[in-house]
Specification:
The protein has 164 residues and is an all-alpha fold. The protein has a domain at 10-39 and 57-122. The protein contains 2 helices and no strands. Helix 1 (10-31) runs antiparallel to helix 2 (57-161). It is rod-shaped and about 160 Å long. The relative contact order is 0.09.
Length: 164
Amino acid sequence: MGNCNGDDPRKIYVIAATLACAFLLLYTIFFCNVKVTQASFHFFIKPTPATINASDALPAQFEQYKKTLDENYKNNIEIMDRKVTLLLTIIGIAVTLWVGINVINSSYKEDIYRMKEELAKSQEQIKKQQDEINEYNKILSATSSATQDLKITLDNLIAMLHPR
């Protein structure tokens, strides 16, 4: 039967789910290198100032610019990947907790309905037994009255047979 004491085995499932979600969140934060800093919010390329000295330096500067652009692109993609992973983990934890709480509430409701049915059956049985007791009391009262009448009749009969 469900009760609010600590011996309810369904609470163990909610506690286990909560601990699993917390472990998943900590794992994601510490082992997936999710770092939310001001540096992770830069999405624009900030190229270093370059001086064009000669026409031969232009392809090298272009390659350097291309390399910087590629690095920034990879960094931004990696940062976004970490943020999406963190967001999905948090959503997963919230959904898991929500489902766990709904399961517990549902099972408590089932217990309450079952207890109401048992209470109604018990009340019916008590009413039947009360009716039987009332009927028995009526019979006992009638028997007592009949016994009293019989005693009076026997006393009168004895008095008539043995006058004083």
